[in-house]
Each structure stands twice: as structure tokens, then as C-alpha cells.
TrEMBL record:
Protein's name in the database: L-amino acid N-acyltransferase YncA
UniProt signal peptide: none
One Pfam family this sequence matches: Acetyltransf_1
Species this chain originates from: Aerococcus suis
Keyword Aminoacyl-tRNA synthetase: no
InterPro entries membership: Acyl_CoA_acyltransferase, GNAT_dom
Gene Ontology MF terms in the entry: acyltransferase activity, transferring groups other than amino-acyl groups
Lineage of the organism: Bacteria, Bacillati, Bacillota, Bacilli, Lactobacillales
Keywords from the named record: Acyltransferase, Transferase
Amino acid sequence: MSITYRLAKLSDLPTLDNILHQAVIALKQQGVNQWQNHSVTKQDLELAIERQSIVSQPYVWELNNQIIGFALLQSTDPYYRQLKSGKFSFHGDYFAIHRVMVSDKVIGKRVTKQMFSDIQQIAHSQDIQILRIDTHPDNSKMQHIIVRENFKYCGTTIVGDGGLRLVYEKNI
């Protein structure tokens, strides 16, 4: 299984919208109130692609020229400026990893393992040594992935919709 990645393009939006829809349904079925009520939309993905820059880098992952995953790397996150509880162990430039999603066609095939490995390579290539990520307290699947990838729990933050998120970081 040879998975590649590249920066996202506007022409990827129909596929990304489909993967987003799959993710929203999966979270709902798991009883996770994350990405529900249109808190993440096709328009959010479109905006991320349109505003692509050194501070906001949307990536897609492909298998056999088919998009199977997406993640957004941002060099700043306003919700990480002041944690509700806890503190960061590492200071300096970082990437915040957001909108991690994979196609339901590849669930269980460890695609996120490859994605996080690639994200580390991307960070290294841009002299970034710190990765940060957050997730909903009920999103046990994402928490498992985050811990598997050796991120350490730092505390909590409150995001734009008022929801509590568990925050993790990793020094690479």
C-alpha cells in the first residue's frame, strides 16, 4: 500500500466533502458530539485551501490516485494561547494539526499512522519541532491515535463553539 501526500487543491473539494460527511456520521454513531451541527463544513475546507500559505497548509493523502485522507497544519492556534487547564511543555514554533479525517474505505488500515509520520516529515522540512493537536473528550478513537503517536496530554482548551477539547503535544 503506497500512500502519498500533497497540498490540497480546490478540485479536491467534492471528495473531501464526502470524507467529511463520512466522518461526521461516524462520530455521531460513536456518540461523539464533535463536528456535529455543521461546526466543520465544506466551506471551512474550501477556505483552508484558498488561504493556503506557510501558516495554513491543507494536505491530502492518496492511495492509487484516490484521496483517502486530509489534515490541516496551522502554525498558530488561538485556542492554544491560553489553556483552560494544564500547560505546554515545549515552547517555540509549532504546527497545530486539525481536521484529521480518513475515508471510510480505509478505516482500520492504519492510514493515520502514515499520515502522522508524513506530518512529522513535513514539520522537519520546515524546521518545526513541536506538534500540537486536540480532540473532543468523548472521541476515544482519536485519543487512541494521538497517544499511539506518542503525543503527551497537556490540558484542556475551549474552542469557538464553547466545547471542551483535550490538548496534546509532541516534541519531534
